[in-house]
Amino acid sequence: MSRGPWINHFGDNFLWSNAVLILKGMAPYGVVSLEEIDRACEKLRPRWNEPDRGKAWFEEWRALGDQIEKRGDDALAKNYKITAGDYYLRAGIYHYNAERFIVPGPEKKAQCAHAYKVWHEGIRLRQPNVEFVEVPYEGTTLPALFMKAPGEGPKPTVVVVNGMDNAKEMSIFFCGLEFARRGYNTLCIDGPGMGEMRRMRDMPSRYDYEVPGSAALDYLLKRPEVNGKRVAIMGYSFGGYYSSRIAAFEKRYAACIALSALHWDLAAWQQKIKDANRNAPGSVAQSNFQWRWVAGAKDEDEGIEIAKKFSLKDVAKNITCPFLVTHAGNDRVVPVENAQKLFDAVGSTTKTIKIFTTEEGGAEHAHVDNRQIGIDFAADWLGDNM
Description:
Blueprint: H1 14-24, H2 34-44, H3 53-77, H4 81-98, H5 106-126, E1 130-137, E2 140-147, E3 155-161, H6 168-181, E4 185-189, H7 195-199, H8 210-220, E5 226-236, H9 239-249, E6 255-259, H10 266-279, H11 290-295, H12 300-307, E7 323-328, H13 337-345, E8 351-356, H14 371-385
């Protein structure tokens, strides 16, 4: 089935189109404006052939972020706090998007620091029920956002771990808001290699994600708002590996959701990206440095070696809690057959697989073309299985 400009904003340039689609998918939650996105993209359209594409990307998204942030400042000066919060939420995500293709270094870190400053101000003004917390972890802490469900008494809770390019500030909206409507608390966490933890605190990822997964659960069990017997772990995109790995080893979780499976052979995927970035950089979803930076590798070859440890092949059988894997039928990042491989390998007696078609929507990677139906399906499944 052919896909229109809503999905492929830059035509065959999948690198930029995928990054924009991730932003577009946040529209139902009021944290982006499609008109503003379109404006930035039209300025970017002629810039793909510039020698430094990453700089072009940064300049246009940073300019948009600055413009929207300034409007937030003006609104706040007039004590229009809700309006200011709206502007800051949008500016924050645009600023965060601007750093996507900046190579790791001081400029990237400074841009991220600015993004978080603006983003967090927006959250505080618009979502006062979101609590900024720090989860104790191996002598330090992991930054997280906790959204309390309405009502009194202990509630079931979902721990959400992000994908490689996302952040807890995105998760708290498209996951937290939907779970809260159904009576669930949500803890969105930036673990090692994710969001703020990688960008501001210089901590790369780790394959044994049950360690931060257990830390998150230990933290929640001390909170009176949490029903400790009904805590689920969920990850999306790359987080589909993390959540599955956590469930395989941390048996206190009552259910697991992989909102998109990851590659069955991550090392082979990284080799493919390495080769494609030399010949057709617009054909892949990832920059040539992203994985090695997330993994803490000194170069691409070491990154591929590290990737060999990130496998569910021999551990998925240890997952025994109710398990859901969803996947996109037109996924161009992680082939759809990997979802079936994960489903078949999982040891749970209660397990579900759901593949979204182009006719349904949610058919692009991690359902970013229609986040609403993806998260609705996951939340409804959780209500039936935990």
